[in-house]
């Protein structure tokens, strides 16, 4: 007789079903545990973990030659989360619980030598896969149960050990499915920072409000100490709360990449990812021998902040062009091609020159040639994909001495939420923002009267706008109109949008 259990293996951020087949041969020979099915080192070592876990849990280990096959055989398995389905198949075949209990059940969990379960990556992806494939039950470590309980038609059980598994499979009433509300209950976001802490910089705060309202990318240029990083870190505080669908997607990425950092249940805070400029191509974009999401994917539905943007590698910056345009990152390998979601707001910060003091007479600049070379590290095509370009000057003495708090993030966020509601109604879908408008959307949703058309002709001629930049300027103007509650885009909205394209 053969016992079949079902597990899951991560491929990128997607979970693929794995069928675990176990066979015993009761022959007079040295007891062997043979594992086949393209198992990587971490899975191949499951033989040691599973055997010791079963014995140390006080359960019976069969005196037989055990053959375990992981199907499909052409899919590489590289995660220890297959420990639990392997152990379950062995225990079921050895009459520790009925084999029929394995039907319609997906199991994931890494075993310790004492038989206890450790948390795993990808529980959310496994739950989604279980729902799509028609499985009725998912068994995971207790630490992962809350994040996996996202579908009403898949019962999620959290257990702590192999002993718990045997009792659950034998019908113990002490185990109940994890309540869906445990995972889906939205938490009120509490931020440690607020725009009320910012002194001055009214122009920059206005630009960040527009970026948040329309999902636009923004680049801030200014000398050291002008507050660029302080402003960027407060952008998530004015973004709308994540919807349940967005939260599931964010949690799926973080869970699959092992970046949850002890967060139980779904991730409800908008991501803010500030990678260092020495980060590698794979760290930013995603990749590796077995591809994992990079920083731009970890910033999905949130903010990717590139401080000292010209200091990042040229290949890294150029690789951002496609995801900024399409909202996905494509990672190609010989075996397969994977896509990771990457819909985020890019916030770049840079000094006006290598020394940071261009235009400030009290400090000597390094020279025009070096300044031009420094600015050229960000290519024109990438600049075209950044909608808002602003200067962040140093604060004046009276601004530094001002003790009055600025406008709180909550007030700005209310305006952003209202503007996004207008966009969702006009474009369709809760995630519809002006930055995602297609050329056809722009023609239909940004109607210009004769005065506006003449203004845009003049601006296009003066600024030598490309077709991409022209469309992006119209998108920004549409966002400014939405913040003002205006039905149509007027000249005043276009004029404000144009000033964010003028770079010194």
């Amino acid at each position: 007789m053969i016992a079949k259990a079902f597990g899951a293996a991560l491929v990128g951020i997607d979970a693929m079903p794995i069928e675990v087949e176990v066979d015993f041969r009761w022959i007079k020979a040295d007891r062997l545990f043979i594992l086949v099915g393209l198992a990587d080192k971490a899975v191949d070592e499951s033989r040691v973990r599973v055997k010791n876990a079963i014995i140390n849990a006080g359960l019976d280990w069969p005196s037989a030659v055990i053959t375990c096959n992981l199907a499909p055989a052409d899919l590489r398995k590289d995660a220890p989360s297959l420990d639990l389905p392997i152990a379950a198949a062995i225990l079921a075949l050895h009459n520790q619980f009925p084999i029929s209990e394995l039907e319609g059940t997906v199991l994931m969990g890494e075993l310790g030598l004492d038989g206890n379960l450790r948390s795993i990556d990808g529980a959310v992806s496994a739950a989604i896969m279980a729902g799509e494939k028609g499985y009725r039950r998912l068994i995971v470590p207790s630490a992962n149960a809350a994040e996996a309980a996202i579908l009403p038609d898949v019962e999620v059980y959290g257990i702590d050990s192999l002993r718990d598994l045997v009792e659950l499979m034998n019908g113990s009433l002490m185990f109940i499915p994890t309540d869906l509300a445990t995972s889906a209950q939205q938490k009120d976001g509490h931020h440690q920072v607020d725009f009320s802490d910012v002194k001055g910089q009214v122009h920059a705060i206005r630009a960040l409000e527009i970026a948040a309202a329309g999902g636009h990318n923004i680049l801030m240029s200014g000398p050291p100490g002008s507050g660029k990083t302080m402003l960027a870190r407060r952008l998530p505080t004015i973004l709308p709360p994540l919807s349940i669908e967005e939260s599931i997607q964010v949690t799926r990425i973080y869970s699959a990449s092992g970046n949850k950092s002890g967060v139980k249940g779904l991730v409800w805070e908008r991501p803010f990812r500030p990678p260092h400029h020495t980060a590698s191509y794979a760290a930013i974009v995603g990749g590796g021998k077995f591809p994992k999401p990079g920083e731009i994917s970890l910033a999905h539905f949130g903010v990717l902040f590139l401080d000292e943007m010209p200091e990042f590698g040229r290949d890294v910056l150029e690789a951002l062009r496609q995801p900024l345009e399409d909202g996905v990152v494509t990672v190609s390998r010989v075996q397969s091609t994977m896509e990771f979601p990457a819909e985020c707001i890019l916030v770049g910060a840079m000094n006006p020159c290598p020394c940071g003091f261009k235009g400030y007479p009290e400090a000597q600049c390094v020279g025009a040639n070096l300044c031009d070379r420094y600015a050229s590290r960000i290519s024109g095509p990438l600049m075209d994909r950044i909608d808002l370009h602003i200067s962040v000057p140093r604060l004046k003495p009276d601004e530094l001495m001002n003790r009055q708090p600025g406008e709180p993030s909550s007030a700005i966020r209310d305006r952003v939420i209202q503007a996004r509601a207008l966009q969702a109604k006009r474009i369709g879908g809760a995630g519809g923002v002006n930055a995602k408008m297609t050329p056809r959307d722009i023609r239909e949703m940004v109607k210009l009267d004769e005065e506006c058309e003449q203004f845009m002709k003049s601006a296009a001629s003066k600024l030598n706008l490309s077709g991409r930049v022209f469309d992006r300027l119209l998108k920004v103007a549409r966002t400014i109109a939405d913040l003002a509650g205006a039905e149509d885009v007027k000249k005043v909205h276009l004029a404000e949008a144009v000033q964010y394209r003028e770079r010194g």
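The chain has three domains: 2-184, 195-429, 437-504. The chain has 22 helices and 18 strands.
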